[in-house]
Design a protein that fits this description.
single chain; 4 helices; mainly alpha
Amino acid sequence: MSGAQVTQMMSSLLKLGIDHIKTVLTKLIYWGEENEYESLDQMRGSMCYKNISDPSKFERANYMNVLNSYK
């Protein structure tokens, strides 16, 4: 969603096997439908900093995630 055209999945495939691709695709399609995305092209870049109408909300959410993940 940040705009990448490709992703690296080698470590997951080595750990979980080649059939893991089916799981990833199934979950990606399901998530996209649940969040009203019609295609990967529509999803790609939707969370890119430059495409967000109010970047301060994105910054705040990231900050809160960092705080909540600290243990």
